[in-house]
Amino acid sequence: MLIPSIDLQGGRIVQLVQGETLAIETTDPEPWIARFMRFPRVQLIDLDAAKGEGDNAGLVAAICARLPCRVGGGIRSIDRAEAVLDAGAHAVIVSSALFRDGGVDLDFAAALADAVGPERVIAAVDSRGGRVAIHGWRTLLPISAVEAVGQLEPYCGEFLYTHVDTEGLMRGTDMDAILAVRRATGRRVTAAGGITTREDIDGLHARGVDAVVGMAIYTGQLRLDEFHG
Predict the structure, then answer these.
(1) What are phi and psi of 110, to 5 degrees?
(2) What digits encode the pLDDT tens for the residues 46-87?
(3) In angstroms, rounded to a whole number, what is the distance separating the alpha carbons of residues 140 and 39?
(4) How many CB atoms lie within 10 A of CB 36?
(5) Domain 2-226 part of CATH 3.20.20.70
């Protein structure tokens, strides 16, 4: 399944290369909301909240009212997760808060699952150079994505695996790394990072993995009319 991605920064829809370099921006979300309406899942990330530089809460709520969104960015507490869900998100994407002292924070993961239900928690496990990357992909932990997934499985309904090494480059993704995560869990797995072509998406779908796509959609390299949602 293709899951279109919307990243928000400063009230705009943006696409960044490697999470840093601005490549695309638009101040009008309406055309993209219209294009994404037929998809059963849309990923919405508040980059400002993720960086602790304010938030786009009003825009997040407005988009969630019209699209079936899973929302991430700055979800570091149970209160924040509950607020995002109350604003209309179908699920919350939690990343850095799931890790502490170089490993998985099982206490927080369990408390979050108890508070909102594991089925509404998507655990984001991002990998750079074979290691889990947190804090905007700047901090590398001494554990692998497969190790993290194994520990977090009881506390979420789905995993979002981002292969940071290929993110935003539109040069394809690392299928072996994604499939290692797929084999490590019985939960639903969604992959992101360099997924560019219909062949990439079909290949992942055949292996039971959904695909989050951003840059390839916004540049027009991937045509949405090829997909039926």
Answers:
(1) -70, -40
(2) 999 988 899 999 999 999 999 999 999 999 999 999 999 999
(3) 33
(4) 25
(5) yes
Q: What is the mean pLDDT of residues 105-119?
A: 98
Q: Hey, where are the domains in the chain?
A: 2-226
Comparing C-alpha atoms, which of 182, 215, 180, 177 is closest to residue 197? Answer: 215
Query: What are the distances in angstroms from CA 109 to CA 3, 59, 70, 174?
Result: 25, 27, 18, 27
> Residues 89, 11, 215, 132: what is their CA dihedral angle, to the nearest 10 degrees?
-60
pTM above threshold 0.85: yes
Which residue numbers are catalytic? 7, 126
The pLDDT of residue 131 is above 90: yes
Nearest to 20 by CA among 161, 136, 134, 132: 136
DSSP one-letter code for 74: S
Q: How far is 107 from 48, CA to CA, in rounded Å?
A: 26
pLDDT tens digits for range 163-191: 988 877 677 889 999 999 999 999 999 99
Task: Give the Cα-Cα-Cα angle 101, 104, 107 (nearest 5 degrees).
Answer: 95
